């Protein structure tokens, strides 16, 4: 640890770390990297939220789910190994923790940063107040970065008082404009600002260096599909683009395990291979927020498949696309495979928003703001 790091203090990061989600683990890596580059001694707090654990590792499932687990267990085990290897090599963390162990471990840090990702989405966490640092009494030790509520409005549950939980944070930094509008409405006394997702604070070249060096598809070009939901729509659009361009289709499903006919199917690749598949694709179709982020970072032509059926989860992608003036990349009716017209303009917007985001992050950690 160098002198600069010691002077700036020790930061604990509380996010979704023990996960099999590519975006989750890569945003955790990115925020840690940003804080370390700013001179902090940043460490991930490996808190194991019971509901997140059950979903990610397919526990507490129905009888039908148990039968599915028998089929996908080999794939799931291989994926667990790939993610654990990535965390060991690229992320610094505490020992695994339950809720009971959090207060004592957090005492070892000068400040705790909550975020990024959907840590304030009670539907994901089971309304776990740990992500609001309710066990820490001193507001000056509480910070946030790019927290997300994951949908158009904040989930509610009996006994959950967001005004109290959020009010102790001197500055609340959220990932989406929609989330900022919601929190300002329900917590009018709180200062709320919008910042970029951590994955957009590192440059595309830095992500390329982290990605697998070997060619992922040496025999030809491909359209890459990363489907968290809306797999059918995403694959149909990809097939159409591939037919027009004489390309293969490569599909990675975050949660599904049944192969897609007519495509190269991936199930258990590492986070670094995930980056490589996007970086080397001719075209990307995704229903994922972080899939969208990385398509933009690698400047790949892309389409975003929104969730359907009355869901309120599309604000995550919609707010980002609007910020970067890329709203025409949404898959609506006919498949628009036209190239992005001006990547230099997109890069400029990311750089400007990134400087402001880092300034606000440092401000939330009670440091002198850097110039914007």
Element-level helix/strand string: HEHEHHHEHEHEHEHEHEEHEHEHH
Major β-sheet, in short?
5 strands, parallel
Write down the overall geometry: globular
Helix content: 40-55%
Description:
This protein is an alpha/beta fold and 372 residues long. The protein is 41% helix and 12% strand. It contains 14 helices and 11 strands. It has helices spanning 3-8, 22-37, 50-56, 63-90, 102-106, 122-125, 162-167, 177-186, 204-210, 231-245, 271-279, 289-297, 315-323, 343-364, and strands spanning 10-14, 41-44, 111-114, 142-144, 172-174, 192-194, 222-227, 248-253, 264-266, 283-286, 302-304. The strands form 3 sheets. It has a 5-stranded parallel beta sheet with strand order 9-8-7-10-11. Strands 2-1-3-4 form a 4-stranded parallel beta sheet. The protein has a two-stranded parallel sheet with strand order 5-6. It is globular and about 60 Å long.
Secondary structure layout plus pairing:
Blueprint lengths: L2 H6 L1 E5 L7 H16 L3 E4 L5 H7 L6 H28 L11 H5 L4 E4 L7 H4 L16 E3 L17 H6 L4 E3 L2 H10 L5 E3 L9 H7 L11 E6 L3 H15 L2 E6 L10 E3 L4 H9 L3 E4 L2 H9 L4 E3 L10 H9 L19 H22 L8
Parallel strand pairs: 1-2, 1-3, 3-4, 5-6, 7-8, 7-10, 8-9, 10-11
């Amino acid at each position: 640890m160098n002198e600069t790091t010691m002077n700036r203090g020790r930061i604990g990061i509380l996010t979704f770390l023990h996960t099999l989600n590519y975006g989750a683990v890569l945003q955790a890596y990115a925020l840690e990297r940003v804080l370390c580059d700013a001179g902090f001694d940043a460490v991930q707090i490996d808190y194991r939220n019971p509901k997140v654990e059950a979903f990610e590792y397919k526990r507490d499932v129905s009888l039908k789910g148990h039968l599915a687990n028998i089929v996908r267990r080999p794939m799931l085990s291989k994926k667990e190994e790939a993610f654990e290897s990535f965390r060991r090599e690229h992320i610094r963390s505490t020992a695994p923790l339950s809720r009971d162990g959090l207060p004592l471990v957090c005492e070892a840090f000068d400040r705790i940063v909550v975020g990024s990702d959907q840590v304030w989405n009670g539907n994901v966490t089971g309304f776990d107040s740990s992500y609001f640092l309710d066990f820490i009494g001193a507001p000056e030790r509480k910070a946030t970065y790019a927290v997300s509520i994951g949908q158009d409005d904040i989930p509610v549950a009996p006994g959950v008082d967001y005004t109290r939980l959020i009010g102790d944070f001197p500055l609340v930094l959220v990932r989406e404009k929609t989330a900022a509008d919601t929190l300002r409405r329900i917590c009018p006394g709180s200062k709320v600002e919008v910042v970029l997702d951590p994955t957009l604070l590192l440059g595309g070249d830095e992500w390329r260096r982290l990605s697998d060096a070997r060619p992922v598809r040496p025999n030809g070009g491909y359209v890459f599909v990363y489907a968290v939901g809306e797999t059918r729509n995403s694959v149909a659009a990809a097939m159409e683009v591939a037919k027009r361009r004489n390309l293969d289709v490569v599909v990675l499903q975050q949660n599904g395990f049944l192969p897609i006919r007519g495509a190269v199917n991936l199930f258990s690749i590492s986070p670094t291979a995930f980056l490589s598949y996007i970086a080397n694709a001719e075209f990307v179709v995704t229903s994922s927020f972080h899939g969208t982020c990385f398509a933009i970072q690698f400047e790949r032509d892309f389409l975003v498949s929104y969730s359907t059926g009355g869901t309120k989860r599309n604000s995550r992608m919609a707010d980002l696309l609007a910020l970067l003036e890329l709203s025409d990349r949404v898959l609506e009716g006919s498949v628009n495979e036209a190239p992005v017209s001006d990547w230099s303009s997109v890069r400029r917007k990311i750089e400007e928003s990134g400087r402001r985001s880092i300034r606000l992050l440092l401000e939330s950690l009670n440091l002198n703001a850097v110039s914007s």
